[in-house]
Amino acid sequence: MLVADCPCGSGDRYDACCGRLHRREAEAATAEELMRSRYAAYAVGQLEHVFRTWHPRTRPASIEPDPALTWTGLTVLVTAAGGVDDEVGEVEFEARWDRGGTPGALHERSRFERRRGRWVYVDGDMP
Ligand SMILES: [Zn+2]
After folding, report:
1. For the whole prediction, is pTM greater than 0.85?
2. SS3 40
3. Among 13, 102, 103, 118, fewest CB within 10 Å belongs to which?
């Protein structure tokens, strides 16, 4: 996977940022870190990571790639709890995309919780 700068917008290189989580070399310490890694996973096509970090209670049976969609940027707007000592957290973000030259954005407030010590995505809604 040739991705220099991490798609999550951290400014770090992919390999040293969300790539570590995608390769299961590290676990997200915070809900925001997990949220960023899930966005980056969509951006680079690591859908196994998206599936693995989705709460089994709410995740779909499978996650299909959408080859027409290119993710073009992420802005984290608000975080609530979700820290290293928390059990639940929320992250509000805007994720931008492009579909055949038509741009758009997903604005979501996502809920996360710890499950067996690891952050997982539960669900989200439009704020
Ligand atoms: Zn990253």
Report:
1. yes
2. helix
3. 102
Q: Are strands 102-115 and 69-81 parallel, antiparallel or unpaired?
A: unpaired
Q: Is the dihedral of CA 79, 19, 105, 67 positive or negative?
A: negative
Distance CA 89, CA 120 (A): 10
What are the respective helix, strand and coil percentages of the chain, to the nearest 5? Answer: 20, 40, 40
Distance (angstroms) between ligand 1 centre and the Cα of 37 equals: 6
Q: How far apart are the CA of 13 and the centre of ligand 1, in A? A: 8
Binned at pLDDT 50, 70 and 90, residue 6 comes out as very high
Q: Ligand 1 centre and the CA of 55: distance in Å?
A: 21
